Give the backbone structure.
Amino acid sequence: MRISALAAAADVPLATVKYYLREGLLHPGTATSATQASYDETHVRRIRVIRALTGPVGLSVQQARTILGLIDDPGVDLYATLGRAVGALPPSVEAPTSDDPDPFPRARAALAALGQVYDPQFAAVAQLEAALAATEAAGMPLSDDRLLEYGRRLREIAAFDLERMPHEPHAAVEYTVLGTALYEPVILALRRLAHQDVASRRELG
Amino acid sequence: MRISALAAAADVPLATVKYYLREGLLHPGTATSATQASYDETHVRRIRVIRALTGPVGLSVQQARTILGLIDDPGVDLYATLGRAVGALPPSVEAPTSDDPDPFPRARAALAALGQVYDPQFAAVAQLEAALAATEAAGMPLSDDRLLEYGRRLREIAAFDLERMPHEPHAAVEYTVLGTALYEPVILALRRLAHQDVASRRELG
DNA sequence: TGTGATTGGATAGTGTTACTCTCCAATACT
DNA sequence: AGTATTGGAGAGTAACACTATCCAATCACA
């Protein structure tokens, strides 16, 4: 398959395929001559993953490159790999100043209330802190009972996710990293739709 | 309070306050002379909401303007207002061609499986369709049991949200619109952290 | 009452991002 | 033989969220 066939198969403009190659999101084809290379199904699949990540998931090309890099070449430690992947996911928050004795007061309190263990280095802690700070700044702080409700339901979802994790290490990384990112838009859409469903039932009942 | 005091109180650059005024995200102060206007606490709060929406929630200035406009001036119909608000939230998906007999096959099947009623005009339907299409394109389609699990937990969360909705109409709009947007980053962060917590318990146990 | 700072407002400039366009010489097809 | 397409490089573009510069009209204080 030549580059124009690849572009057609993945349904993206040729110039965009060239752009992904240049940016290192897409692995080069195997060169068959000085001005020709051939591409295969792995390239088509890769482009589809790139579009999924930069589209619904909302990643920048830079973030997508990081995520894809982790899948292609995961470290030995699945936990550390997932940590790096979560750090690349939006919302990106900058690391706190290292001399701050309590950089995440809201997140710390919330996780304590939930009884959850966590690694303060994990990017999601800073993300939770920023999200909680935003709710307060906007005048709608997260109440304790809401935190408990959300935390409980999301832990049930997380437990389900982990039950389905493949055993083979490479597949596990791909499942975990892509599953974290790809299912998030589904979760948000389902909550928005559930609001509508619950509201309509309440009106009628 | 003059404009520089407002900028200091809300902790944003003065030039940015002027930008928000120009873009219509922030209501003008009351003019006290040809070159002076005075601002109050409502302006400070508004800027905080703007920063919350354009920061952790990840809205563009354009999207934030739409959301804020709906809160300021909601229609008589809460349902329609929420629908418009959800349409302004990312991920933005374009409306399907009107002559397509079945524009949302995946979302339709998913909502049928969940037994949920929905309005096909509701933007979240198109968002769910795009999110499901992305999972398939990336080679990780959402299985039926996962859909059921996610749908059930999110409906529980949605029911909780609605229970806490204020009765006064204006407060209800603000709660619903801001609550949908502001709590989403919290939900994603909590899922990411729950993965870590559940995984660590599993290893130890 | 002078005088330096600040104001609201308008206009233009900046850096980033995700493409998109244009060229090019070197093949490939017919 | 001649037209078309290729991979690759470079520059261009449009949108975005500020940010900087100006300006004449006040204002605040000495």
User: Anything to note?
Assistant: Chain B touches chain A through 78 residues (CB under 8 Å). The two ends of chain B are 59 Å apart (CA to CA). The mean pLDDT of chain B is 94.
